[in-house]
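Today's session is about reading a structure prediction critically. Students often jump straight to the picture, but the first step is always the sequence itself: look for stretches that repeat, for charged clusters, for runs of hydrophobic residues. Only then move on to the predicted structure, which in these notes is written as discrete structure tokens rather than atom positions. Here is the chain we will use throughout the hour.
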Amino acid sequence: MGLAAATTLAADGANVAIVGRDATRAREAAVKLGAGQSGTVVGLAGDLETAGEAERAVAAAVEAFGGLRGMAVTTGLGPRGRRPVLDAEDADWEHTFTDVVLTTVRACRADIQALAELVGVERILFGSDWPHGEGLAEPTDFVKELHGFDDAAVRRIMRDNALELLGVESL
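Below is the predicted structure for this chain, in token form.
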């Protein structure tokens, strides 16, 4: 799914950073994907299961492109996540949670400040997929992830931008 999304974005002229655990595979995929595309494609190494790697990968993408205009986080299930439900052990489920959910959270956390600096907090709004597995049961808990934003910016991201988008004057 990730490579398909990257292919479509590059074909539309977007600059794309592919991040993978294996540096050689990421670079090879970027070269193959970038051939004949109008967008620039770079391959970056990073294991987002490791704390701090998401921030490093985002910083490398910002350096490569001079900023970010958005982020698409796609991940597939590794072999442990594809085991039959009754055959999977707790360790398999814990690994799969880290591999899919936690890596996505880390990538989004690493990107939000860079994105806000580029486009402004008035263009960022929060939504939750609850009750889907990646959504938040308590969407207001996302406030805890908005480190470095002042109260006015948090209010815009969590409330005011959505009201403006919907054309609601006030509640």
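Discussion point for the tutorial: The chain has a mean pLDDT of 80.
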